[in-house]
Amino acid sequence: MSETTTRQRGVAEIARSQVRAAADVGQEAVSSGAYVYPVKGIYYLLAHPRLYKPIAKPLGLSFITNLGILAFLFTFTYLPQAAFMAIFSGPFGFITAIPLILGEAAAITTVIAKTFYLGPALENLFDETLLLQGQTKLVSNGREVTTQSGTKALGKLILKPLHRFSKEGIIRYILSIPLNFIPVVGTVFFLGYNGAKSGPGYHARYFQLKRFPQDQRKRWISERRGAYTSFGFAALALNLIPFATLVFSCTSAVGAALWAADEEKRQGSKPDMSAVPEQDKTRDGDVKGLKELPQSPYVRKVVIAARLLGLNDRIERIVTKPSEVTPPQNLINTNPLGKVPALVVDSAGSKRAVFDSPVILQYFDTISEPRDRLYPPSSDPARIDTLNYEALTDGILDATYLIRAESIKQPEEQRSAQLIAAQRNKVRRGIEALGALPEPEFPSAKAVGLACTLWYLNRRLPDFNWREGQGGKKLEDWFKRAVEHPAWVEEGEVPPS
């Protein structure tokens, strides 16, 4: 094989690996759901007038700056740039020149505004949003937090203000503007490339508050490369909207703070509810009451899932003892079958019931962050696999309950050895089937169901050694790791019944 051929194959392999890496990042970017945070920042800012004050004056100056720059660029550079773009885009030149100028105006406006008057305001806005999210402890790492009229307020800075700009970032942005020469696709690549580079910058203040050293910061970003790419893509796309560049810089800062607050909750941080506005404590979709019996494995599925998704603080847990003969009326009002778990939620001001653990877990998915879903999307074939897995674990729980109920029946002569043997065979077959499947990972409905199933078997059938069956050792090792998960540890054990 010639040296030239070897070199060509080497280049081709490098190209393929780069394409695969880009595809992986793209897939992670979509699945992370981080792209929704810039949009969430818009709604959150509009819903919280307290956030207006830090940015009112800087935004006024920024708007005037952006207007002047746009007027100058469209007056003096639009026709030359459109003519130049026509060389590459033909008749589309007059169209593709528009995002080119918008990008230039956004870059120039951002440089001027953040250098002279908007930078400190964005820092205050980020901290204020974290404060409203109950992240008082995190904010206090970088500045004093005071109490005014019974509410938490920002005080003096403790850490030095951040450097506002990266010269490399500005140069990279300007040099990549010609990507817009390619109609449509070029603009997408422009947003993706710059979004990937600029995304982590939106969390610069977060890293500062976390006191991350450089190596930890790099590791954090590397583990979330796709998420930061999607956030940067969405934020940059909003920044290209005429006359609103700096407004969306502010809303993206709010979105970045919301993302940081969610990351803190995922890591087990307890929000300071005294700092959270009342409107956020009672927002639409809040869980008003969970009718539960702690010893129930189905209830445990729900409460573990709630902790995994950061929803635990939104749940009021009401211990309810169902009766086989006459369940409590308040339980029947929620679930006519008189079974737990049963959830009462407040939706658009009216209460509605959600009951049975698989339904409650799927409901949780509708109110949790996209990146932490328990189930794959309905369009993903893997969702059916998850539902089958959940049906298998629930079936084992049902059989275990029947064994337990039959085993304690009085008098003893009324117990059916045949029924008990049949249910034990079901449990054994189910465990062997689970042992043959790939190990699930948290957070997922599979992992929640498996952990609660093995927990219940240990609790109710201690003489049933499921570890000895096919795949039992693998499940035992997995369960040992599962009970060390923060969500499981926080929930703790429940007393015997």
Automatic annotation (TrEMBL):
The protein's name: GST N-terminal domain-containing protein
Keyword entries, A-Z: Membrane, Transmembrane, Transmembrane helix
Residue ranges crossing the lipid bilayer per the database entry: 59-76, 82-102, 170-193, 240-261
Organism superkingdom: Eukaryota
Location (main, coarse): membrane
This protein's record includes keyword Nuclease: no
Membrane topology type: Multi-pass membrane protein
PROSITE patterns linked: GST_NTER
Residues covered by the GST N-terminal domain: 286-372
Localization terms from the record: Membrane
Region of interest (Disordered), ranges: 268-290
Alphabetized Pfam families for the sequence: EI24, GST_N_2
Transmembrane is among the record's keywords: yes
Compositionally biased tracts (Basic and acidic residues): 278-290
